[in-house]
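lol so apparently i was supposed to do this last week
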Amino acid sequence: MKGLLTDLSFEELENTIVNLGEQKFRAKQLWSWLVKGAEFAQMSNMPKGFLDKLSQEYYAQGVEIYGEYKSQKDGTVKYLYRLNDGNIIEGVLMKYKYGNTLCVSTQVGCRMNCAFCASGLDGLIRNLTAGEILGQVIAVNARNSDGSDRGVTNIVLMGSGEPLDNYDNVCKFLTLVSAENGLNISKRNISLSTCGLCDKIRQLADDGYTPTMTISLHAPNDEMRKSIMPIAKRYSIDDIIKAVKYYFDKTGRRIIFEYSMIAGKNDSEDCARQLASVVKGLACHINLIPLNFVKERGLDGSNKKSIYKFMSLLEKQGVSVTVRRSMGSDIDGACGQLRRKVINNEDN
Ligand code: SAH
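anyway here it is w/ S-adenosyl-L-homocysteine bound
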């Protein structure tokens, strides 16, 4: 199996080039082509013999845009990507006044199997490499490189997959994407969303990474959380609170909790009160997410009225809370939905 050049750091690229008998300065040229999304054939200032040698052992790019769906409502763009082994993943580009946020996937499929999520329906198929996570950003930038747009400025690791279940590749991605001579995306503009793998949350802080930590909580007590998220059998809400306190103390980054609102399940007034007491005293913010309907899961989202009532109950308790704007809902914006639709169609 061929390697992937976008998996390499600049130093690793230099070593690779020297080992192939080429001069070190070529690394800079090659690197600048790679971050622009170029294939070997486009690398016009590089010796042909060297590119031939390189292409026998490596792919230049790991991610190709395979489909693009623009929301008519809000300009959100959903992308389908094809990986070199034929697997399909997806991502979403959301345009805000302050910049363009790309939601990236970290795995093909997911092991976590949350009750409402489309990504876990087939289990984990495989981890993405660092270069494949980076490749999503590279491909979207290349697609929008006509100068009319400023490219990706913010990243959320919130697509399909559990980022902390692919720890090493995700850490390498975090390093690569913020490399000054590469894509140079500010570390402050990167968020990571996790179902709450507490040991890895601590390890991330210990290893010096500082993405905004977003926790998918979705329930105010362990019993209910276990019935929605299998991972709750391994880590209690109390474990999560301790881990995020540790993360906050080490990184100074505020914690965000995500709470997807499921009709008749986690949206009662009592749930709001319990939730307020869970987060009491933490430097955090709660994002209420209107649940996107996933056919195979069959769970309904709460209606607007109960979401806003829930929000005002939290506010009364002094909790910082917003309802997430549901972007791109007309183009299957929620995790894993679009990929499934395409795969199901191809299967039929
Ligand atoms: N595994 C990570 C990141 C991927 S999911 C995590 O659990 O955080 C990103 C966010 O989308 C999570 O908060 C997840 O719970 C939420 N999500 C997944 N499916 C959804 C759906 N159908 N409707 C609303 N939110 C959903």
